[in-house]
Amino acid sequence: MDNKNTNSKTKQAINSIASNFDPKKIVSELLKFLNDREKEVITKRYSLKNNPKHTLESIGKSHSITRERVRQIENLAIKKIKNISEKLDAIHLLDKMIDQTLDKYLGALGEDTLIKKILSEQKNKEENKESYNTIKFLVDKILDEKYETRKEDNDFYPILRKKNHDWNEFQDAINIIIQLFEKKDQPIHKNKLWKNYDQEPEINFSNNSLNEEILLNYLEPSKKIKENPLGELGLINWKSIVPKRMSDKIYLVMKNLGYPLHFREITEEINKMNFDKKVAHPATIHNELILDDKYILVGRGIYGLKKWNYEAGKVSDVVEKILKKEGPMKKDELIEKVSQKKLVKKSTINLAIINNSNIQKNKDGQYFCNQKKKAKK
After folding, report:
1. What tens digit of pLDDT does each residue of 163-189 get?
2. Were both Cys, which of 18, 43, 101, 146 would link to 121 (CB 3.0–4.6 Å)?
3. At 67, which helix (H) or strand (E)?
4. Taking the CB of residue 45, how many other CB atoms lie within 10 A of it?
């Protein structure tokens, strides 16, 4: 109960501060103290005020100066606005927002996650590239001495930490979840991750204050764990998490929807999910469905997963198979059972029954498969 009250008070405090925070206004105020060249270098280098990001070299060429001279101008400009920023209440507000947000997450968050949380708490909830770049600049260059930034490496994207934060606790949480995935050997929906962890008594986090919300946020900067479009978490090298082949994308779409689809509908769903920059085409998808035995044709151009217990082949063959396995039955019951195996019209199934010479009706009005005995040689 104490934890819940503390979290609630923290959130209220952050919301109160955020409602008075306008990052673009702060940067505009800071840039007033720079000369024109300094202002241009800063806005272009850090993609402020809707400027695309420029390299030192490209800025140097436009002014006929060296890369090193551009760097000197940049450093001098940052030093100027850092000195000014110490007198701005808005910077102290941002500092307080970061501090309280990091406290809520035990002292560390992926920089990207932190920036998005700050933007989401703003009164106008303005989340665009300009606002994002503005806060990133303020965090990286104005408040850089207040916090520690763990630079991007092979395992993590940039992470912002309080100076007293225990990095081993953060790393321990990630490693334990990796261990959990390796044991389960399959993706886990993010809403069920904590429950799965809870069911493993031999796996324990070193920090008892860690909860489900903190854990999910800890995973975001990891380069070894990713969320797929279905909300499932898993290891980055799993094709169920990062599908590269079209066949893997087809599988995820069908698994997500849970029912058979026409190959054109599958194509549309793959493109909606936006797995990557590759555009799916109906002909390619149709070809994959034909070649991969995970999928089965259940209707005209309609495919399902084999594990859903649909049947391949002609409707008449399916009728025979059901009767051979389950014995005589009334037509309505037979049609219903065939409908569960093939996605065709009931009239089509009726014709398959009537026109099949192997299917006959007994005196009780039930249909059965007349299995003709082979003549002895």
Report:
1. 989 999 999 999 999 999 999 999 999
2. 18
3. helix 67-85
4. 22
